Automatic annotation (TrEMBL):
Source organism of the structure: Gasterosteus aculeatus
Domain Pseudouridine synthase RsuA/RluA-like: 78-253
Subcellular location, record wording: Mitochondrion
Keyword DNA-binding: no
Annotated family: Belongs to the pseudouridine synthase RluA family.
Name of this protein: Pseudouridylate synthase RPUSD4, mitochondrial
Domain of life of the source: Eukaryota
Gene3D superfamilies according to UniProt: Pseudouridine synthase (3.30.2350.10)
This protein's UniProt keywords: Isomerase, Mitochondrion, Transit peptide
Stretch list, region Disordered: 23-43
Gene Ontology BP annotations: pseudouridine synthesis
GO CC, alphabetical: mitochondrion
Length: 336
């Protein structure tokens, strides 16, 4: 049979429009990237720390309230003690989610979600945004006054567990050095607390001379006790006897030269920069110095003791958070 008119036996089959489109697409497509290697142990740790610091920041107030409700450590008709999570401020004037902003919801939860509940909760004592652990709430303003009165008379005992870079010497003692807020000048001007000692070394170097107290300095006293030390770091129990801003951090970093792990504010006296860690500590933590800014502050409100308005003694202990326990394990520090 003869081929159809207008066609030739040697002709190639014509490409359809869809075939042409696919061919052009293939030509435009970038070469396939090589498969990414699995994340290293350090990359996983950094990702974990980033997620940890942002975990409960910016969540819906009801989500935070539920989290706090699940973690209630103690409650009676006068007070409630909650387990404060990392990175959530007690108060925040910018409107972001804070402990104070969710107290109306938490109060209703504590009251069994009763529609006509008129119960309230009020924060009593300070706890920094980056501090975890036992945090005291009062059920009325009258109870707040009772607790503040106890606090002024040093009758509220709070003990914190911290991990320090370095080993305090002696292993137990009292730091009694006033603190003062100072401006630090430079490329990034900022304010931070500093020591304002009442004594200085005399000219011969064999004794001390009393100096006049600075008018803007505040008395600050912190008891400390080393619980364990290893890998150039220590687990230390701190008991502040006064309530000055950042006093424990300043006393550890500047008085004992053993800054708290993750304290990027007080590890350098004259600048703002991530904490500089010794190589062996970095190796234990599985981190490089360039990633250390993601390491959180290791301060935990471990024990709380006071006498309640009804006369009963309140004693509460708060378990360490997971990240704190993980760091203890990495540094081979053991719990007492």
């Amino acid at each position: 049979a003869k081929p159809a008119a207008g066609s030739h036996a040697g002709d190639k089959p014509r490409l359809r429009a869809v075939d042409l489109a696919q061919k052009v697409q293939r030509q435009k497509a970038p070469p396939a990237a090589a498969a990414e290697p699995p994340p290293s142990r350090q990359q996983k740790r950094v990702t974990e720390l980033k997620r940890l610091s942002l975990q409960l920041q910016g969540v819906h107030p009801n989500v935070l309230a539920k989290h706090l409700h699940r973690g209630v450590l103690y409650h009676d008709k006068d007070v409630v003690v909650i387990n404060k999570p990392l990175g959530v401020p007690v108060r925040d004037d910018s409107g972001a989610t804070s402990i104070s902003s969710v107290l109306p919801v938490l109060s209703k939860m504590m009251d069994g979600l009763k529609i006509k509940s008129d119960s309230q909760l009020f924060p009593c004592l300070k706890l920094e945004k980056e501090t975890t652990g036992a945090f005291l709430l009062a059920r009325s303003e009258k109870v707040v006054e009772h607790i503040l009165d106890l606090h002024r008379n040093n009758q509220v005992q709070r003990k914190y567990w911290v991990i320090t870079v370095g080993v305090p010497v002696p292993a137990e003692g009292l730091i009694d050095i006033p603190v003062i807020e100072r401006e630090v000048t430079g490329p990034r001007p900022h304010f931070k607390m500093a020591l304002s000692p009442l004594y200085r070394m005399n000219d011969t170097g064999d004794g001390v001379t009393k100096v006049r107290a600075h008018r803007q300095a505040h008395p600050a006293a912190t008891k400390y006790r080393v619980l364990d030390s290893s890998s150039g770091c220590s687990l230390v129990e701190l008991q502040p006897l006064t309530g000055e801003k950042h006093q424990m951090r300043v006393h550890m970093a500047l008085a004992l030269t053993c800054p708290i792990l993750g304290d990027h504010k007080y590890s350098h006296s004259n600048k703002l920069a991530p904490q500089k860690l010794p190589d062996r500590v970095l190796a234990r933590l599985g981190l490089e110095q360039s990633k250390i800014r993601h390491l959180p502050l290791h301060v935990h409100a471990r024990h709380l003791m006071l006498s309640g308005p009804s006369g009963a003694d309140i004693r509460v202990s708060c378990a360490l958070p997971k990240y704190f326990l993980q760091t203890l394990n990495q540094l081979q520090l053991t719990l007492p």
